[in-house]
């Protein structure tokens, strides 16, 4: 049997007619992103969700057919629509800014001046180079200006950005940038610790490696503050 590793660099653009923004970068097979914002076209929302689901189901059906699957089989016939629904309504719902969660802020009534840490936030995302899962934990910390955010809202911000085709570096930055703007503070730290199934379930097949990314801003650039945050994350609870 012939085995072949295909480099993404050699694949043609899937839809050259639509790729007219000139902003797309070919990142090849590397997990390194250069833009904080997810690259999207200006016409990204010309189709509504129902139209997108219909179109994705049509194309996913073609993929399955191309693989030689019998699409009249009971077990397979509903898969294209299931995948399309899952893409639009669940795992890629964070592409739609309309799905950004309400972020209720409260007055910092107690004048709490120490860092606030939300650790071990579970997330599930998908690698944009292979469309297979990335999952892991996010740890977020900030120093309040005069506002504090409901803790569950931090989880929701993480989930929102995770529900996109992602690279881990961009996910880290997007969470950090949003925390800064929502809380109106520069003092934000984000650490993402993740497993990439494109590394563990295919490719090199390494089931043990994890990828860490971090963003430290404001006071968190101070070594003592940074250490306090890291100690807190590593503390056994
Ligand atoms: Zn990947």
Main sheet record: 5 strands, mixed
- Tell me which ligands are bound: zinc ion
Low-pLDDT runs of 5+ residues are 1-34
Total number of β-strand segments?
Answer: 7
Secondary-structure class: alpha+beta
C-alpha Rg, in Å?
A: 20 Å
Q: Note the overall shape.
A: globular
H-E order = HHHEEEEHEHEHEH
Strand residues, percent? 15-25%
**CATH architecture term of the largest domain:** 2-Layer Sandwich
Q: Could you explain the architecture of this structure?
A:
It is a single chain. The protein is an alpha+beta fold. It folds into two domains: 139 residues, 2-Layer Sandwich (GTP Cyclohydrolase I, domain 2), CATH 3.30.1130.10; 47 residues, Orthogonal Bundle (GTP Cyclohydrolase I, Chain A, domain 1). It contains seven helices and seven strands, in the order αααββββαβαβαβα. A five-stranded mixed beta sheet has the order 5-2-3-6-7. A two-stranded antiparallel sheet has the order 1-4. The longest helix has 18 residues. It is globular and about 65 Å long. The chain starts with 48 loop residues before the first helix and ends with a helix. The N terminus is likely disordered. The site of zinc ion has 5 residues, from loops. Zinc ion (ZN) binds next to loops.
Task: Offer a concise description of the structure.
The chain is of the alpha+beta class and 237 residues long. 33% of the residues lie in helices and 20% in strands.
Topology:
Elements: H1 49-66, H2 74-77, H3 79-91, E1 105-107, E2 115-127, E3 133-143, E4 147-149, H4 151-162, E5 165-166, H5 168-183, E6 188-196, H6 197-200, E7 211-216, H7 223-234
Parallel strand pairs: 2-5
Antiparallel strand pairs: 1-4, 2-3, 3-6, 6-7
């Amino acid at each position: 049997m012939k085995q072949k590793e295909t480099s993404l660099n050699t694949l043609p653009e899937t839809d050259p007619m639509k790729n007219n923004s000139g902003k797309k970068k070919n990142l090849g097979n590397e997990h390194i992103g250069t833009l904080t914002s997810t690259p999207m076209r200006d016409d990204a929302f010309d189709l509504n969700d129902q139209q997108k689901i219909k179109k994705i189901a049509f194309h996913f059906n073609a993929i399955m057919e191309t693989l030689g699957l019998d699409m009249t089989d009971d077990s397979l016939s509903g898969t294209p629509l299931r995948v399309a629904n899952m893409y639009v309504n669940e795992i890629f719902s964070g592409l739609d800014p309309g799905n950004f969660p309400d972020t209720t802020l409260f007055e910092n009534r107690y004048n709490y001046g120490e860092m606030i840490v939300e650790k071990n936030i579970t997330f599930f995302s998908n690698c944009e180079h292979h469309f297979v899962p990335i999952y892991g934990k996010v740890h977020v910390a900030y120093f309040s200006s005069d506002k504090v955010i409901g803790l569950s809202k931090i989880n929701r911000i993480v989930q929102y950005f995770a529900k996109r085709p992602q690279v881990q570096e961009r996910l880290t930055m997007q969470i950090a940038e949003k925390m800064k703007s929502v809380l109106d503070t520069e003092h934000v730290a984000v650490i993402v610790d993740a497993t990439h199934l494109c590394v563990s379930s295919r490719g090199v097949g390494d089931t043990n490696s994890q990828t860490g990314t971090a963003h430290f801003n404001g006071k968190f650039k101070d070594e003592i503050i940074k250490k306090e945050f890291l100690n807190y994350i590593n503390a056994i609870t």
